[in-house]
């Protein structure tokens, strides 16, 4: 009799546990999603507070879900993808306020305080650690939908100078024999604005006289078209000011076309032996 009672109790507990788990799963599935019109990617400037957007990095912030439990999404800044979670305040009909935190397992993590009005997202980012040396940032983003376009090119009006790499060179004054030291930087040619490695298989005759920076930029433009978020400032600096650039992915290798894969292999091969053109430029 005792064994039967114990067995009955165990079965009852297991049945109750299963029912509770099913109820929890059902509740999770039926949680009402809020403000679905806010879902999507927001792209724009991420800049030091004191510069007010004059010097910036292009960042993306994506909102994936909003329920009564909170907001979930992710941000990509400087090629680093960080998960976001936080709260929403929609009491004011004229705006929606979000407070979103990064995980906190890195010293560089912080919290976003965001105000959304229409398709515009304005706010600040502050480091989570009070003793952090990182500065407060401003962000000004707009909602955009990403669509891969292989025809996108760098603007022909730009000067494509690599300010992240320099070397000192000895220069002579025009009126005497004395000399001075001046910093010179890598400069790309106009080839970066008209050679498209996404649409056409590039010929060796088109590449053999190009400088190393030309080859790097032509290759990186392929990745930029796919929405790749560059991790190095040296690569980002040429795309942050392009209106079409949307850094929303941290890996796009599987998205490359056969033409792009072929061209990237060729560009890498030529870049191994290419030289660079250095010159002096004002900042």
Descriptive report:
- The protein is α+β, with helices and mostly antiparallel strands and 283 residues long.
- It has 2 domains: 36-144, Quinohemoprotein amine dehydrogenase alpha subunit, domain 2 (Lipocalin, Beta Barrel); 161-279, Methane Monooxygenase Hydroxylase, Chain G, domain 1.
- The chain is 23% helix and 33% strand.
- It is built from 5 helices and 11 strands, in the order H-E-E-E-E-E-E-E-E-E-E-H-H-H-H-E.
- It has helices at residues 2-30, 204-207, 212-225, 233-236, 258-271; strands spanning 40-48, 56-67, 70-77, 80-89, 96-101, 110-117, 120-127, 137-144, 161-172, 179-187, 278-279.
- It has an 8-stranded antiparallel beta barrel.
CATH architecture of the largest domain, please? Up-down Bundle
| SS element count, helices | 5
| H and E string | HEEEEEEEEEEHHHHE
| Count of distinct strands | 11
Low-confidence stretches: none
DSSP helix fraction: 10-25%
CATH fold-level assignment of the largest domain: Methane Monooxygenase Hydroxylase, Chain G, domain 1
Gyration radius (Cα, Å) is 26 Å
Q: Average pLDDT value?
A: 88
Give a short account of the largest sheet.
Answer: 8 strands, antiparallel, barrel
Give the overall shape, derived from the CA principal axes.
globular
Keywords:
283 residues; alpha+beta; Lipocalin; Methane Monooxygenase Hydroxylase, Chain G, domain 1; three-stranded antiparallel beta sheet; 11 strands; globular; YARHG domain-containing protein
Compact overview of the structure:
This protein is α+β, with helices and mostly antiparallel strands and about 280 residues long. It is about 25% helix and about 35% strand.
